[in-house]
Amino acid sequence: MKARIPVRSPLAALVFLPLIVACGKPVDKLWEFPTSSPLYSTPLVVGDLVIFGSESGVLHAVDKKGQARWQFQAPSAQIFAHPQSDGKLVFFGTTNQTFYAVDLKGQLRWQVAARERIKSDPAVVEGVAYFTSYDGHVYAVNAENGKRRWQFPAADASPAAEESLILTVAKAGAWLNAAAFEVKNLEARLSEAIKGRKDKALTLNLEPGLPAAQVAKVKAAAAKAGFDPVAVLALREGESFQAPLVPPPPKPVEPAVKPAEFSYAAPVIRDGVLYVGNLDGFMYALQTADGTLKWRFQAGEGITSTAWVEGGVVYFGSKDDHVYALEAASGVQVKWKKKTSGDVLSSPRVRDGVLAIGSNDGNFYLLDAATGQEKCHFTAAGPIISYGVFWEDWIFFGAGQGDGSVYAIDHNCQKVWSYKTGYKIESDPVIDGDTMFVTSGDMKLYAFKLKKP
User: Fold this and answer.
1) Residue 263 within a domain
2) Structural domain boundaries, residue 189
3) Is the CB of residue 295 less than 8 Å from the CB of residue 320?
4) What does the pLDDT look like over 310-343, one tens digit per residue?
5) Are the CB atoms for 267 and 254 separated by under 8 Å?
6) Out of 80-89, 122-131, 181-190, 209-218, least confident range
């Protein structure tokens, strides 16, 4: 007896089809690209390339199909930064205290040195590349050639004044010591002694008993070498004088503001102002024209969160467990702050009045950007350092140690989708059109296809 095949009415088929689509996966994995070391660098998409760094100091470039294109090896380095590009060059810093610019074929164009490791993402705006270092400085360099425009603080100290050069004119004989000589060839000696000196401060000592004829020769030689004639005329046997040709430089002066280490917080540029957090707990606002300090605001602990600036407000997280909303013009008024139960190392993102941010308490929060009031939160199995990326009606982010998943949630903090990688995710997802790229500590770059909800 033949099995009976149920027959569905056309109406039933129309009802059933949308149900199948609604229950389908909202995200499909396209491919994964394995490397030989952990990946905590957020990918950069430029043209057909996806570029990211590794803990072994390799900058990888793959195409959007997951095929390797080129590599650049930074010696004795780790790369944690999210590379940035101006469309011609790719910029990134490393832990070997060097900031690099390579072209889109992976060829080195230039490099500049800091005095400590570089872990944060750079910013590239209008031909200038900005980056920070654990040496306590913010640097601005020409994006084309790496020539420095300014640094903040401007200098650790003014150039030290050269010590006054003391020369002794002896009665006779050869050199008595490193700075003592006879009158013979005095003019050449004096000229040589002051050559290249900025302050040209010089003390001439005439040894007692020097004959009058030789004193006259000293005066003539000193005047011809460029010393003040009045001071030369005052020179007498057995006397000394100091005759600076130009005022000596000022004594070393410590900068008025001396930041601690700039770590993972990246510089953000808005309307001619650079905003960046520091491990000393301050959020700094600098003028991009010359690097002068506009204001700084102190949170309770260090800031590794990258700021989001919108509508005259600076949003950021701090290791004091809080999310801050700070008035951007002067840095004086705290509009609101929201306490979480862990360090806030994640960076905020704002869209349509909703602020998304993670915390080391394992929660990913959606807050009202105007008031800081919590709308909802999603709890993962590990700390959330990754920032959230808005796409359509969803927010994507990665979870750290103990979890290792990339998540999609809706605006009610309900999980829409997740994918578990082999280790923690401390980088940020990047969405290009309907394709998402994310790196993991499991040494792989992942690509996912997103489907509109």
Assistant:
1) yes
2) 165-242
3) no
4) 999 999 999 999 999 999 999 999 999 999 999 9
5) no
6) 181-190
Tokens representing residue 447 in the block: 């690509």
Residue 175 lies in a domain: yes
pTM of the entire structure?
0.76
C-alpha dihedral, 221 to 223 to 225 to 226, nearest 10°: 170
Distance CA 26, CA 407 (A): 12
Same-domain check for residues 120 and 87: yes
User: Token digits for 72?
Assistant: 């650049």
Identify whether residues 146 and 267 lie together within a single domain: yes
pLDDT in tens, 53-106: 999 999 999 999 999 999 999 999 999 999 999 999 999 999 999 999 999 999
Domain assignment of residue 84, yes or no: yes
The C-alpha atoms of residue 254 and residue 11 are separated, in whole angstroms, by 81
CB neighbour burial string for 163-197, b if at least 16 within 10 angstroms, e if fewer: eebebbbbeeeeeeeeebbbbeebbebbeebbeee
Residue predicted with more confidence, 408 or 180: 408
Number of structural domains the chain divides into: 2
Percent above pLDDT 70 for the chain: 73
Cα–Cα distance, 145 to 353 (Å, whole number): 40
Do 107 and 95 meet the contact criterion of CB atoms below 8 Å apart?
no
Can you tell me the distance from the alpha carbon of 67 to that of 44, in angstroms, rounded to the nearest whole number? Answer: 15
Tokens 């000196």 sit at which residue?
197
Query: In whole angstroms, what is the distance from residue 162 CA to residue 407 CA?
Result: 61
